[in-house]
Design goal:
Blueprint lengths: L3 E7 L5 E6 L2 H10 L14 E8 L2 H12 L3 H9 L2 H9 L1 H4 L11
Antiparallel strand pairs: 1-2, 1-3
């Protein structure tokens, strides 16, 4: 059975990069070595793998990757931290928290 991975990297500039692969070890090596000068991570190395999930079908992996790419930084951080309460909170109403994820009181 083939496996697929959706992953999040933390870049040297603290940006998050979300990707998909069928070979995690090879793909991480490619990111670290800077195989593609046009790649988002090329100028943001080194990168650190901060989260991944394994899938058995490419369709599910692609669906999850696209979903995560649409999330706010705070929501991605909640996923990485396995903070399910905040993940649910940030899922309920994006406009309530604004682009920087701040609530009306400015607190988490």
């Amino acid at each position: 059975m083939k496996t697929y991975f959706v992953y999040i990297l933390k870049c040297s500039d603290n940006a998050f990069y979300t990707g998909i692969t069928n070979n995690m070890e090879r793909r991480l090596h490619e990111h670290q070595e800077g195989k593609d000068i046009e790649a988002y991570t090329y100028t943001r190395r080194p990168v650190i793998l901060v989260w991944f999930e394994m899938f058995t079908t490419p369709d599910e992996a692609i669906k999850t990757e696209k979903q995560i790419k649409g999330w706010s930084r705070r929501k991605k951080q909640a996923l990485i931290d396995k903070d399910w309460e905040k993940l649910v909170k940030y899922s309920k109403n994006y406009t309530q928290f604004g682009k920087k994820g701040r609530s009306s009181t400015g607190s988490d």
